[in-house]
Structures are given as C-alpha cells and as structure tokens.
C-alpha cells in the first residue's frame, strides 16, 4: 500500500484517479478547493469502504498548500506519490483574453504544481523514494488558438517536469508527465463558441471538441494510466493517453512550424475540410 496525494479531485480525471487508487488498496489524500461540494464523492467512498480522505486545498495559495500538506505529514510519515492534476482552462484569442485569465491559468496549472511539488520533495528526497506524476496535456506539445493561454501553462509544466526529472532521479524519485488528448470532462465540454470574437478559432475548436466527444474517451482511462505508472518500475517520462493523443502529437511533428501556422490561418472551409480528411471529424 502506498500513500497518494492527488490535487483537483472534485470531478473528472482527479476524481477518477482518487477512486482508482482507492480501489487498488492505496491510502488516498484527495484534495480540492471546496470539499463541501463533494457529497456524491463522499457517498461513493463510504459505499465502497475506500481508504480515501478529502482535504481542503487551493493550489493557487502557498498558505493553503503548505497547511494541507503539513497536516498530512503530522499524521503520516510519507507521501509516496504526488499526482498534480488540478487545472483550469480559459480560452480565447490573445488579443481578446484578459490578463487576469492568463494569470489565473498559469497560477493554477504551473505555479500550483510547483507549490505542491516543493512541499513534498524534501521528505521524498530524505526517504530516497517517491513519484511525482504531472497531468499535462497534448496541449503541452501542440499550441493552437484559442487555447494559447492553456497551452502556454502546459508547455511550462512539461519543461519544469523534464528539468525536475533530471534533478531528482539520483534520489530515486520518479517524475512522469501524463498527456491526455480530448477526454470527456467538463473542461472539454466547456470549449464553447465565442460569437463575439474577431477570430474564427473559438468556433472551429468548439466544433472539433464537440465532434470528438460524440465518441467520448472517459477520464477513467487517464486514471488507469496514472495508477499504472505509479505501480510500475518504468522511468519513462512522457505518457500520451487516449486514442487521439499520439496521432495529434505525431501529426504536429510531421509539419514544419510554418506549415502549422498556415494550417491554423486558413479560411474556415479549408480548415473544416482538413479536419474531416485527416481525423474523420465533422467540426462544422
């Protein structure tokens, strides 16, 4: 049995990951901003007799992160696995999005990971064991409008995770990056058309996400991969997850930067036709 700390467990990938670890017999500290909203989660924990406790933590706050993790260490010697899952998404053109939205995305998706990681590293290093699993995204490898702010935060997460892996391997601490594609979560469903935008990309991507979600990939698939990574001996750094993840990454890698810019800058008809021809998705 391992002790597992997971951030952002109120719904989606985080919730399913907490349940996956609990069902596998591990002790789970499931953290979220608003535990009072987790009544259904609490009922599931009780009905299945899972060793999961819910803790209040806001990854945007140094004080909240340190208070939560210190309280866990007061009662438990180690945290064996940290799963940095908490994340938010804001989308829109770079011209039209507010600076507050850019800062919020980076604070949660990048600095939030750093806060939690720095809080557990001293103990992991001392114990010479541990795993840190960071939930990034295909958007950490591919930047598209209107997801520029989100992609920037995930690119940053990929970069810091790669550097961290180099630093901590000598202490027998494993770092892994999970890169989900389009997963059936509320975040994916919230990619909506902005009818007021001066740019066409919001409408296009809303259509593509909607088309993809007609054959949905459940968040439990990502949860199962995270559990698999934690229980395996692999030191593999990056783990694309979902049927579209690797194809999207390879598709982007097949294009020059200039071809990529041009593809995203074409007129609507050519863009929709390309998505249908390349991926079989009717994004109209």
TrEMBL record:
Molecular-function GO term, any one: oxidoreductase activity
Keywords: Oxidoreductase
InterPro entries per record: NAD(P)-bd_dom_sf, Sc_DH/Rdtase_CS, SDR_fam, SDR_oxidoreductase
Pfam families: adh_short
Similarity comment: Belongs to the short-chain dehydrogenases/reductases (SDR) family.
Protein name listed in UniProt: SDR family oxidoreductase
């Amino acid at each position: 049995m391992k002790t597992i700390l997971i951030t952002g467990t109120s719904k989606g990938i985080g919730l399913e990951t907490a349940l996956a670890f609990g069902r596998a017999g591990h002790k789970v500290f499931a953290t979220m901003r608003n535990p009072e909203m987790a009544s259904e989660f609490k009922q599931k924990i009780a009905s299945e007799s899972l060793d999961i406790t819910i803790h209040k933590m806001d990854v945007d706050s140094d004080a909240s992160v340190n208070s939560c993790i210190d309280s866990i260490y007061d009662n438990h010697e180690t945290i064996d696995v940290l799963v940095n899952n908490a994340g938010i998404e804001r989308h829109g053109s770079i011209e039209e999005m507010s600076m507050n939205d850019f800062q919020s995305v980076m604070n949660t998706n990048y600095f939030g990971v750093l806060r939690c990681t720095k809080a557990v590293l001293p103990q992991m290093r001392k114990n010479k064991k541990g795993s840190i699993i960071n939930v990034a995204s295909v958007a950490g490898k591919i930047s598209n409008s209107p997801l520029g702010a989100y992609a920037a935060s995930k690119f940053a997460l990929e970069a810091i995770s790669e550097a961290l892996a180099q630093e901590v391997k000598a202490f027998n601490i494993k770092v892994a990056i999970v890169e989900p594609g389009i997963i059936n979560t509320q975040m994916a469903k919230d990619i909506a058309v902005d009818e007021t935008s001066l740019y066409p990309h919001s409408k296009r991507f809303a259509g593509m996400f909607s088309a993809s979600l007609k054959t949905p990939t459940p968040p439990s698939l990502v949860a199962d991969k995270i559990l698999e990574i934690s229980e395996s001996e692999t030191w593999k750094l990056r783990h694309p997850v979902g049927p579209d993840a690797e194809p999207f990454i390879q598709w982007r890698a097949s294009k020059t930067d200039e071809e990529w810019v041009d593809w995203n800058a074409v007129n609507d008809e050519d863009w929709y036709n390309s998505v249908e021809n390349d991926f079989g998705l009717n994004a109209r």
